[in-house]
Amino acid sequence: MKKAKQGLLKAIATRGVIAAIPVAMASAYASNLFVPVPPRMASYEYQQVAEITVSPNTVGVAASPLYGQTKAQIDQQLSEMQALGVQNIRVFVPWGLVDAFGPSQPGSLSWSLLDTVMQSAKDHGMGVLAEVDSTPPGGVAPGTPNGGNTPDPAKFAAFMSKFVTKYGETVSAYEIWNEPNGILSSNPINPAAYAALVKAAYQAIKPLDPTATVVAGAVGHVVSFGNITMDPVDFVKAMIAADPTIGQYFDALSYHPYDVSLPFSQGNIDPNSGWWASDTAFNQLKDLVKLFPTKKVWITEFGVPTYTYTDANGVVHTITQDQQEKYVADLIKNWAASFGVNAGPIFLYTGRDTATGSTNPEDNYGLWNLLGQPKEVITEFLAQWFKDHPQNGTGPTNPGQPTPVPNPLAAIVQALAKQFQAIAAQVQASVAAFAKAIAKALASIGGAPGVTTSTALALKVASVPTSDTPSAGVDEVSVEGTTSKGSKDSEGTKLSEEPEKSTATDPEKTPAVTDPVVEPADTKTPEAAEPAPSSSTEPSESGPAESGASDTPAKPDKTDTATKPDKTDTATKPDKADKPDKSVKPGKDAKPGKADAKDSSSSKNKGDKKTSSAGAGADKGSDAKGASHSPSGSGSGGGGDEG
Question: Transmembrane region positions (predicted)?
Fold first, then answer.
């Protein structure tokens, strides 16, 4: 009867422990209900994109004139560039032409010229910077006359979404507009409107191409001149004043340091040394870097035309190939040393002349003439540069993660999460206390005295055949509450096949037994574990050796084991100690479930791209500094893309 009651109590206690385990596990993970969980590793199909290496040694070509040419013509020029060593190009994406008759869809006739350029770049495996600008008649901002140049940010973002979806596998970086500090590209010049345009474009691009580099600015090297041009530093400062968060919506800033009156490195002079000193391309760049010290600056256009012509006053204007090479080489050689970690790639304007021999400097910026013949001085320099600085492709670039816009609910959610975690911790503590109480009750069932120890038992479950490590709470409840010294199962057989490790107690701290404990006739007397041979500390396959018949009744004269430390002191053999009762073996009844979660994050990053506004017809000659800052918006009469 007594044995039956003990069996019933054991069964109830065991089921209580089993029921408590899911509660403990649930409370342990419940705190994640209101806390964002990192995304799991996901697998996506993707096509490798030729990336622009973000390095000051990267020299590409701003090949805006490619738009509108045939596939054969484009392929020929890209092959010439690659033979020289060029691996990256900046292409012109004229929104104003693509949507000239209203919003259009990729695949339609109005997208066919873009398809040709992009397919050629893809076929050649070149990194692509897409410079998107020019406003279609139906894309102007509210309140702007139809046909004006100030774009509607929402309509521009809609176009960018279609463009990225169509060409995201080819384009590495996106440049938003071209020289918006000149009236030829933005009419009227409006830094606040441009800031809104950049923000809208960024929000359209990043969800579709998270690793792309968004390049803003493309400001030209000019001085403020009425409503015709605006100093690039003043322009960017006005952007920040209009939207202090604008720095979160682009990855790199671009600048066009056109100047044929002064080599780039020679502009590094005291800005107070003359009325014009602070306006050199070098000094303007220093001021721009100060506004965004953590961002790189891409030079997405720079070039020098080669031409000779006589003006109306009979003055001959000439720039030779030697002069072209001198100015280009000066920039390339001094770029990295001058601007260090802020120096990004350089794109030279342009591939071929559009009209070699023309009196218009804009027609003569090519590295090759109109017939494809190389301008030997500059191409020989570039060939050696590329030999010394191979333009090898790399993996996706990392433009960096902008500071996220604060979420107004974040503080509330975090506070609730902390409170919930505190409640969960209290629940876990209560469950653990309940489980320990049950464990102590189990230890006293069967007549064997509970083991008193000054330290908590630290046991490992050897019987759970899994590589997943159970939680500490589960191990402690399952084993500590089911192990008693020298226990046997209900059939009298030692549990040798389940070797459990236990922290043995010092014999001096073991309470002395003064009276023999007499078990009923049908029970078995616990036996002291025999010490293992001195040559090994590992448990045997079948557990400690038994020294007598397993059915021997209790012997009163052997009960005082406290005086025989040589038989019972197993402190040096913790792995030979007690065996758990099989009736409550945790490995059989309460295996914890797996709760693994794998986190990872990937990214991909890309390079940057840019184009320039065309129509910069001002003379970039060395006659006068004021003339070099022409109202063309291309800076110093620099080359630009047709808007």
Answer: 12-30
- Cα distance between residue 173 and residue 560, in whole Å: 85
d(CA 176, CA 16): 66
Instruction: Of 591, 593, 596, give the one whose Cα is nearest residue 478.
Output: 591
d(CA 210, CA 314): 56
pLDDT of residue 392: 66
Of 610, 637, 632, nearest to 185 by C-alpha is 632
> pLDDT tens digits for 152-179?
999 999 999 999 999 999 999 999 999 9
Q: How far is CA 189 from CA 193, 208, 258, 291, in A?
A: 9, 30, 20, 20
Which residue segment(s) compose the domain that 618 sits in?
Answer: 59-400+607-628
Q: Into how many domains does the chain fold?
A: 2
171 and 247 housed in the same domain:
yes
Distance between CA atoms of 324 and 86, rounded to whole angstroms? 18
Q: Are residues 189 and 283 in the same domain?
A: yes
CA 432 to chain centroid, in Å, comes to 40
Instruction: Establish if 506 belongs to a structural domain.
Output: no
162 occurs within a structural domain: yes
DSSP summary character for residue 489: -
Q: Is residue 581 part of a domain?
A: yes
Only one residue has tokens 């979420």, namely 407
Same domain, 134 and 239: yes
Q: What is the pLDDT of residues 302-356, one digit of tens each?
A: 999 999 988 889 999 899 999 999 999 999 999 999 999 999 999 999 999 999 9
